Amino acid sequence: MWWKWKIDPLTIDCVLIYAQAGHGRRASVYTDYTFAVWNRPPRDTQEAQAVLDAIEKREPAQPEALQLVAFAKAYSGLTDEEFKQIDSIIRKTTLEKFGPVRSVKPSLVFELGFEGINRSPRHKSGIAVRFPRMLRIRFDKPLHEANTLIDLQQML
Question: Which CATH architecture group holds 10-155?
Fold first, then answer.
């Protein structure tokens, strides 16, 4: 006999930036998401809004400027009703389409849980998380209060 011991997940508040349709019964709904954190804390809401405006205008990020950095993909943790709600927002805020992937205007913060975190030279963020899943949608949290790459690095 063996026991499966579940540990409390590490958590981070992050921003939805890409979406892709799911598989099987979720094939018609956007359920597979890519999340980002700020590369550093925004100085204020205006600086964060300037980044969001630049993303909407499809302007490339400046190397040393504030920007959102992708770090994880997740597709589990929400109810079917929550997925439908987010799908509606994704369809209204799509900026670009790359095959099956949609780039969306950053407008939603999620609490993401994961079991482990490591350094990764394969990822732009330099971070890889183990078993990421969405814990909840943070409608109560403004985008400029999402976590940063520094927060992830401190978890290492």
Answer: Beta Barrel (2.40)
